[in-house]
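Researcher: Let's continue the batch. This sequence belongs to Glycoside hydrolase family 43 protein, and it's 536 residues. Same format as the previous ones, please.
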Amino acid sequence: MIRNPILPGFNPDPSICRVGEDYYIATSTFEWYPGVQIHHSRDLVNWTLVRRPLERASQLDMRGNPDSCGIWAPCLSHADGLFWLVYTDVKRFDGNFKDAHNYIVTSPTIEGEWSDPVYINSSGFDPSLFHDDDGRRWFLNMQWNHRTESYGGAPKHPAFDGILLQEWDPKARALKGPVRNIFAGSPLGLVEGPHLFKRNGWYYLTTAEGGTGYEHAVTMARSRAIEGPYEMHPQTHLITSKDHPNAVLQRAGHGQYVETPAGEAYHTHLCGRPLPPHRRCTLGRETAIQKCIWEDDWLYLVQGGVVPDVDVPAPTGAESIEKPTRIERTFDKPSLPPEFQWLRTPHPERLFSLAERPGHLRLFGRESIGSWFEHSLVARRQEHHSFRTETVVEFEPDTYQQVAGLTHYYNRHKFHAVVVTLYEKLGRVVTIFSCAGDFPHGRMSFPAESGVSVPDGSIHLAMEIRDNDLQFFWRGGGSNDWVALGPMLDAGVISDEGGRGEHGSFTGAFAGIFAFDTSGRAKPADFGHFVYEVLK
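Model: Same format as before. Here are the structure tokens for Glycoside hydrolase family 43 protein:
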């Protein structure tokens, strides 16, 4: 069986591509660098992160991109011996405008170096590239209409102004011919995330609708001609949980069709797993997949209805491989462990070094936590509702403007952190910084007040998250005993729904280490290891 979600934690907008017996899924990374996650599988059951292709300044620079902007909804495809990746870099979120720029990059292999981007257009986000069987290529994206009261956090239907189609000329590396608006969507509205495929002479268009919250859906339509008109699926929606609040997989929508070599049909989709009592998805939007069947040239879920299943029939012979419940990472290699990312900048050498002190990750204190430009934060996704992280830091601040620590982080308005810093009356201390969803101001609170004086030497920091509850710990001076610091905090606010609400942010919770130095002297902090452990 396939156990959903197949990509737990922040992995939204899954675009799936099969080449021979290899499957690849590309997901959105928003402001996290490098851009786009690509996972690989041979059986649709077991998945491994193999590449983040947008990795240099000539491909992607997101300094200044607001929270939840950056890379939206990549589409991965394969044709003529090349992998093709199209994506949006969104530069604005609030207000009427999005400033969404669309690009194409290519590579002969997933693992190899990808090309510099070719600019396509900026008429809307969620681009897709379709390779027709006559050799022509077609570019799709949703069209954004700024002439409505469509502000971030409260999307309005008229802003999502249909799906555009235009031919792409790979020789000229440009769009050509008329721009056609081929699909206005269903009455649910907010049409986006288009993907085309062809079967039995039909062009099938799947789109995402209903926004990224609990009304989300995969909508399906078909036409004999690529430019339409498109008729709606008999059920309108192929996959949705919008009318089923007790379904385990909520917020189901935005995915893509794939067939196995044997012709079995599957469709990916994003989903969320809310925690009671607030229905907050602390793991963000995750990737799931559903087994499908064809009836009368329409696609349906194999279990019937539209509600996605947690357990799904796998292709013949596929078996799940047990994943470790405790991962300890040391920093003795020339690159970061594969699950770690940083924010926005293509110049990570200004943020951290793995060479300056062998066996340690040295973070250089840059701008404040939550900066949109240079923020020294290295983090991994939260993949479980209950987990523990540990790290050890060597850090000697000489002013309260110098801070290093461990954080549960979503964005500048949603984070908790246990930190080492300086307090004039107490000397070096451990204390807590917290911003529990204070949008738009981002004001912090200090649940441990001035903190606790700590002995000289390295300081061990830890946090335990059990569903909606977070507790910080520390130890030092050679002691093996962990000491709880501060009160229990609300971990559930570190979620899409926390603070601003479900349509106001689209990423997910991370656990990571960080440093800042607002004096401008780039005070370094040396971290010795990072542990991520699943709690029962």
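Researcher: Any comment?
Model: The first strand starts at residue 2 and ends at 3.
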